[in-house]
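Dig into what follows:
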Amino acid sequence: MGLLHGPAVRVEGTDRLPEGESRTVSIGDPLAGGTEFVLCRLGGKLYAVDVRCPHENGRIAAGPLVGGRYVMCPLHNYKFDPRSGAAVGAVCGKARTYRVREGRGDCRVWV
């Protein structure tokens, strides 16, 4: 589970995110201290992974999860497990994850 960094932000309509899919969420202006993350549904649960790939400033992409399980940075095709941020099949640091709590069709993410 991701670390508790600051206040929770509410993301609406997350109950419409299908299993094995992800979408990018922007909170504020990413160029002025805001945050962007990829919100994923895996095993019926939501996970949030920072869009910044830990390898060479790539960006983790939204869309279908690779193999139904992983988010991917298309810069070098690095895959990451959204549950832990761990790189899969590559020597790379962990992607940053955030704590997520879902309820009543929305979720809260601690960024």
User: Anything to note?
Assistant: The first strand starts at residue 8 and ends at 11. The chain has no helices and ten strands. The beta strands are 8-11, 21-27, 35-42, 45-50, 61-66, 70-73, 78-80, 87-88, 97-103, 106-110.
